[in-house]
Amino acid sequence: MYYRPEDGHGLPHNPFNAIVSPRPIGWISTRGTGGGDNLAPYSFFNAVAYEPPQVMFSSTSAKADRGDTKDSVANIRETGVFCVNIVEYAARDAMNETSGPWPATEDEFMRAGIERADCTEIACSRVAGAPANLECRVTQIVKLEGAHNFAVFGEVVGVHIREDCLVDGMFDVTRFHPLSRMGYRDYAVIREVFALNRPGEK
C-alpha cells in the first residue's frame, strides 16, 4: 500500500510508530521551580552527538494544566535542566505508571513507588536504581510542525552508571535488558546482541 499522511492511511491504527521502531525510551525526570518532581517516558528519544555528548527527546501532546505542552517541557522551560533515566525490563510497570496524564502536582516517583536520588550536576531527581542516568543541561527547545510538538536538546554534563552493568570496562546492556517502544501498545526487550566490524576494520 501507499498513502500520504495528509490524506490518511485508512487503517484501524496509525502505522507510523510501528514502522519507525524499535525506539529507545527516555525516562525523563524534571523538577519545577516550585520544587515538585516529575517523571515521564518519551519514545521519541535518542542520542544525537558524541563530543560533547548530547541527547534529544520530543513531546507531542499537551495537558490542560500546562498550556501548549506537558509537565516535562514546562519544567525544562523553567529550569533549563533534565535527567534521562535508562529503562530496564524490570522497571516496565513503574515506567508505564508514570506515563499517565497525571496533574502537574502529581509526584510520579511517589505514585509508582520509585526510589529517587539527587543528581550531582543539576538540581533534579533521578531514578536511583536505573542502569544509567544522564544529567543534561538544555541547549535548545525547537518548536516542530504541529500544535504541541517540541524537540528538547540537551548536553550531557553528568553520567551515572550502575556498577553491575559494567563488564570488563564496557556498559553491558544484557545485564539489565533495555526496554524499547514498538508501535501501538507494543514494547520489546533486548536480551541478545551481536557485533559487526565496519568495512576496513579488523
From TrEMBL:
GO molecular function: FMN binding; oxidoreductase activity, acting on the CH-NH group of donors, NAD or NADP as acceptor
Pfam families the record matches: Flavin_Reduct
Domain Flavin reductase like: 20-173
InterPro entries: Flavin_Rdtase-like_dom, Split_barrel_FMN-bd
Protein name: Flavin reductase family protein
Organism: Gymnodinialimonas phycosphaerae
